[in-house]
């Protein structure tokens, strides 16, 4: 069991028996680690805000304040990325640091595979500038070939089959960056001009979205992270 899973399991074990305590030795035997490792894990949980306290005495141990804990959090990768984007609207407010801290706690509570998927999805989102960005009108599948009906700047509607690479957000608009099979090159599709789309079952070959592919000065491009 890796450390992230063990931290989550310790909280769930203490939640299940609360308000009764579990000793460090009992937890060490339960998770097949040393008492010192358990003590370090408990300290890390306490520092992250988990309400665990030590109860002294021969029958004492570690207790969880059940009244002040949340039930297990099962965010989807998309939900975690949506929260990271929402934090961009806290720029310049007194609550920016608190929002960043809350996101880190929620991501830490996710299942390991979901956390990894969320980080991969966040890596597909590039932002221009540091200011607020508009809501995204379409939520599109990154890992599937899409069939689009798209309106260009002249108002002409075309049908495209694309391999999504990621998103670029700027204060005015959102863009879906994709390999366009019609044009045989990387293209940017303004999401408010997408008339309709269908996600196919086809998984496209993996391509990496690089800032240099976008012809944008590197200093203006920021990759979204789940650190807030």
The outline comes out as: elongated
Which H/E pattern describes the elements? HHHEEHHHEEEEEEE
| Count of folded domains | 2
Estimate what percentage of residues fall within beta strands: 15-25%
Task: State the assembly state of the protein chains.
Answer: single chain
Helix content: 25-40%
Question: End-to-end distance, in Å?
Answer: 27 Å
What is the average per-residue confidence, as pLDDT, rounded to a whole number? 83
Determine the structural class based on helices, strands and strand pairing: alpha+beta
* Major sheet characteristics: 7 strands, mixed
Q: Specify the number of helices.
A: 6
| Poorly predicted residue ranges | none
- Counting DSSP E segments of at least 2 residues, the number of strands comes to 9
CA-based gyration radius: 23 Å
Descriptive keywords:
single chain, 228 residues, alpha+beta, 2 domains, two-stranded antiparallel ribbon, 6 helices, 9 strands, 31% helix, elongated, Helix-turn-helix transcriptional regulator, WH_DNA-bd_sf, WH-like_DNA-bd_sf
Could you characterize what this model shows?
- The protein has 228 residues and is an alpha+beta fold.
- It folds into two domains: 3-68, Winged helix-like DNA-binding domain superfamily/Winged helix DNA-binding domain (Arc Repressor Mutant, subunit A); 74-228, no CATH class.
- It contains six helices and nine strands, in the order αααββαααβββββββ.
- It has helices at residues 3-17, 24-31, 35-47, 77-86, 96-109, 112-122; strands at 52-55, 61-64, 125-128, 146-151, 157-169, 174-180, 185-190, 194-199, 221-223.
- Strands 3, 4, 5, 6, 7, 8 and 9 form a seven-stranded mixed sheet that branches. Strands 1-2 form a two-stranded antiparallel sheet.
- Helix 2 packs across helix 3 and helix 4 (77-86) crosses helix 6 (112-122).
- It is elongated and about 80 Å long.
